[in-house]
Amino acid sequence: MYQEKDYFEPFEYPTDTRIDISKLLIIYGMNDSLVDIDTLVSQLPAFNKQHFTQIKDGKVVGRREVVIKENGEGVDDKELNVFGIYGHEHLDLLWGRRQQENVINNVLDFIWKDCTF
Question: What Gene3D superfamilies does the record point to (predicted)?
Answer without folding.
Answer: alpha/beta hydrolase (3.40.50.1820)
